[in-house]
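Q: Could you fold this chain for me?
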Amino acid sequence: MKPIFSRIGQAFKNSVVIEKPRLYAEIKFDRRLLLDIILLMVGGTATAIQGVVNGSLSSYTAPGFPPWLSFGVGSVLLVIFFLIDTRGGKSINWRNSLKTSPWWAWLGGLPGAAFVVVITLMMPIRGPAFVYSIYICAKMVTSLVIDSFGLFGAKHHPATIPRIIGFFIMTAGVLMVSLDK
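A: Sure. Below is the predicted structure, expressed as C-alpha cells.
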C-alpha cells in the first residue's frame, strides 16, 4: 500500500488536467440535452422558490417549522413517486442493495435537510440574491472537487483550465451580487 502523501499526490495529478483551451469545442445539442436542461431549470427554480417561501413562513411561525413542513409535504410526493417508479418497491433487490452499496449512500437526506434548514434561517436575514449566490458558489466548489476526484462514485471529470477559469468568473459574479449594497 502506498503512503498517504503519495496517494494524495497521485489523486491531485489525476484530478487536474492542464490542456490547451478549445475555442470551438463540439457540443452535441440534442432533444435529450434540451429536456435535461429544462428539468434542471425547473429544479433550480423550485429550490429558489422553496427557500423564499420557507424563509417567509419562518417569520410567521418558528424557524423549525418550514423545514419540517417541506420534508413532510415532499415525503408524501416522493413516496408516490417511489411507489410508481419501483412498482411498489418490488423492482429493488433490497438485500443486495444493502450489502453492496457504500454506507454513505444511505445518508443522502442529511445534506438535503441541512440545505433546507440553513436556507430557511438565512433567507429572512440576507434575502434571496445573497443566499443563493453564496449557495451556488459553495455548490460549484463542492461539485468541482467531487468531479475532479470522482468522489462518492461520481464520474471523474478532471478540473481543466477552462473549468477553473469559469469557476473564478462565476465566483467574481457571486461576489458582485452578494456584496453589492
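A (continued): The beta strands are 16-17, 159-160.
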